[in-house]
Task: structure prediction
Amino acid sequence: MSFTTSFTVDRTPQQVFDAFTDVRRWWSEEIEHAGDEFEYHYEEVHRCRMRVTESVPGRKVTWLVLENHFDFTGDKTEWVGTTITFEIGEKDGKTEARFTHHGLVPEYECFDVCHKAWTFYVGTSLRDLITTGEGQPNRRNVLPAELAR
Result:
């Protein structure tokens, strides 16, 4: 079992792909890129390093989690070695975006927090970026209001 969320939008597959790959505009403004890898961090609460292992414009992106640290879990290896896929398809004349974090399972200490975070970042922030041109990423050391509660 893995965490999956999806939505449909009235945009082209390429527009959805372009928004997803612009992670600074829907996840965090503090993402640092270096080639096929990028690093995410929010204060000392969460840090991770991802590698883009597959990128098919307008169709699919896959990330491999190389490193991860949560300050709120006992198991510091949660997420390490898991993969995240973002697949784009057609559904009922619209573009479907499907996000799956393979290996993010209910047994993980972070599952509830991660489920809430991915639901917001993908289902709200990314969707807003696609449909309005403005996402709701973390600003410098500030979480979006929905996650700060």
Notes: The two ends are 27 Å apart (CA to CA). Residues 3-148 form a domain with the Alpha-D-Glucose-1,6-Bisphosphate; Chain A, domain 4 fold (CATH 3.30.530.20). The beta strands are 3-9, 32-34, 37-42, 46-56, 60-70, 83-91, 94-102. Residues 27 and 87 are 17 Å apart (CA to CA).
